[in-house]
Amino acid sequence: MSKSETIERLSELAYQHRIKLIELCKSYGGIVHVSGDLSASEVLIALYHYGMNVDPNNIEAPDRDRFILSKGHAAVGMYIAMALRGFFDMDDIFATYGKLDTAYGMHPCKVHLPGVESSTGSLGHGLPIALGMALMARQKNEKYRVFTLLGDGETGEGTTWESAMVASSYKLGNLIAIVDRNRQFMTSFSDSGFVHLEPYAEKWRSFGWNVIETAGNDMSAVVDAIDAIPSSDSDKPTVLLCETIKGKGVSFMERNVSWHSGILTDEQAEVALKDLEMAYCGGQK
User: Fold this and answer.
1) Beta partners for 211?
2) Contact status, residue 38 vs residue 78, Cβ threshold 8 Å
3) Helix %, strand %, coil % for the chain, to 5?
């Protein structure tokens, strides 16, 4: 498959990912952290369908790449990306999401859902968990890589920078952090003064990381960024800083802090689906 064909295939999957997100929100009828899922569609699809060595038919393969969803509130986005790859049954997600004893909770649980590497939800812990996995791989001379997806808001946590320092000290080139840089917190924008993240890329570089900056809602750019990640035996951890738009593709959600989470009415879902269709079809011309 040529690169252009790969981009076309992944872009179609990202479109389907967003459609399924909106359809689930509509059918569930409860609160879903939909906006931060929409910002990460390209990244999640590119990882599970292109960048990571994972196999839905062999979820415990010793040489598989590991993925930790540090921004655990984007769990439904991860479930759908994995279902589109064949890890889970999409109908099961729609039928049971958010219900008592479901395997598909609002935050991922590895006990209930095989294929999930770690339970997450409390922010700031995904990178420390991924760090431990990457260090174990090095100690055992195993070649798999460990990926973790963080929200930029949670990188205000001290555990992020403690882990960043340790990772570079141990020269863990098998560790890849990906930041969904949508520049929004739960109730404010990241440049509002509550936490000063800038100069953001320079912070990561000063901690000894290889930094790749990219447009996180452009599939071609995301694929290029993944292709630019050094091999797992390199001596620097890598962070992909993915500039994204929270609520990407839905007119009334984009950059709207009131849509960190919410409940979609039937009318809003109809508008959202039309927005997504127009954005995707327009991009194919």
Assistant:
1) 239
2) no
3) 45, 10, 40
What's the rounded Cα separation, in Å, for the pair 155 and 233?
26
Token pair recorded at residue 281: 């079809």
Asked if residues 147 and 67 have their Cβ atoms less than 8 Å apart, the reply is: yes
> 3-28 and 266-283 helices cross at what angle (nearest 10)?
170
Give residue-wise pLDDT tens across range 134-169: 999 999 999 999 999 999 989 988 999 999 999 999
The pTM for the full model equals 0.94
Reading the block at residue 188, the tokens are 């404010």
Residue 42, token pair as written in the block: 């390209």
Q: Number of structural domains, the chain?
A: 1
| Calpha distance 92→69 (Å, rounded) | 21
Residue numbers of the chain with a pLDDT score lower than 50: 285
The token pair that represents 54 in the structure block: 């994972």
Read off the tokens for 72: 């655990």
* CB of 88 closer than 8 Å to CB of 24: no
CATH number at residue 157: 3.40.50.970
Rg (CA), the chain: 18
The H-or-E segment that residue 228 falls in is none
Q: Are 126 and 68 in contact (CB under 8 A)?
A: yes
Q: Which domain holds residue 178?
A: 3-283
Q: What is the Cα–Cα distance from 4 to 27, expressed in whole angstroms?
A: 35
Closest CA to 82 of 117, 111, 30, 127: 117
